């Protein structure tokens, strides 16, 4: 948290310079650069493993682009959605729950007109879901995972879920993966990911900063 406090108020550009972190020419195309920079500076170790970013601490890092008014600008990716062998999976054992059990939220001013290099880092804070928040996440997870288990993955859209949605996560429409089809057969579909809705992350910010 001392490291987190030390970077509050800096721009991403200042931080990259300070740590001599390689900056791509076109940051708008390099969506992952911000997260990589912050992970590097704060010492996250997990990389792309399905464990929290700070493995020894069991804490997941989430950067959160916010507007001038302090509202989240986009949904927050949590983890890849399993599409095969999902029978018997439980919320308690799920990657989503492990990732969201303890989160370091780092708000970053992300209005479109501000170039990524000039975006300011806000005050990071630690968060754990309340019993009520955990129940909401569990319900969304279970309802949507049940559709996957029943071979109805194509019925899932971003409209489902009160606080968490499943939607495609792929570089392009050719990046297909296996899933369970309507009759239990294997079908090809786009990879999916779990995303927190902005209404949910907005509430987290409100609670933290009494907005």
Automatic annotation (TrEMBL):
User: Which keywords does this Swiss-Prot/TrEMBL entry list?
Assistant: Cytoplasm, DNA damage, DNA repair, Endonuclease, Hydrolase, Nuclease
* Subcellular location, principal: cytoplasm
Q: State the compartments where it is located.
A: Cytoplasm
Where would I find the DNA mismatch repair MutH/Type II restriction enzyme Sau3AI domain in this sequence? 42-140
Q: Does the keyword Hydrolase apply?
A: yes
Asked if the keyword Signal belongs to this entry, the reply reads no
Matches recorded under InterPro entries: DNA_mismatch_repair_MutH, DNA_rep_MutH/RE_typeII_Sau3AI, DNA_rep_MutH/T2_RE_sf, Restrct_endonuc-II-like
Tell me the function of this protein.
Sequence-specific endonuclease that cleaves unmethylated GATC sequences. It is involved in DNA mismatch repair.
Family, per entry:
Belongs to the MutH family.
What is the designated name of this protein? DNA mismatch repair protein MutH
Record the organism.
Pseudoalteromonas gelatinilytica
Give the gene symbol: mutH
């Amino acid at each position: 948290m001392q490291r987190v406090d030390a970077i509050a108020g800096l721009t991403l550009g200042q931080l990259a310079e300070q740590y001599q972190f390689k900056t791509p020419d076109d940051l708008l195309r390099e969506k992952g650069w911000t997260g990589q920079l912050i992970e590097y500076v704060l010492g996250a170790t997990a990389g792309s493993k399905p464990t929290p970013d700070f493995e020894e601490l069991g804490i997941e890092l989430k950067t959160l682009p916010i507007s001038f008014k302090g509202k989240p600008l986009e949904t927050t990716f949590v983890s890849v959605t399993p599409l095969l062998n999902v029978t018997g999976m439980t919320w308690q054992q799920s990657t989503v729950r492990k990732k969201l059990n303890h989160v370091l939220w780092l708000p970053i001013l992300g209005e479109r007109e501000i170039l990524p290099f000039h975006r300011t880092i806000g005050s990071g804070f630690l968060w754990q879901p309340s019993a009520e928040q955990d129940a909401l996440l569990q319900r969304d997870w279970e309802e949507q995972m049940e559709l996957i288990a029943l071979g109805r993955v194509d019925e899932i859209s971003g409209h489902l879920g009160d606080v968490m949605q499943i939607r495609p996560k792929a570089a392009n429409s050719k990046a297909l993966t296996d899933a369970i089809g309507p009759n239990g057969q294997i079908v090809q579909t786009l990879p999916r990911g779990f995303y927190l809705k902005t209404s949910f992350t907005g509430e987290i910010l409100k609670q933290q900063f009494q907005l």
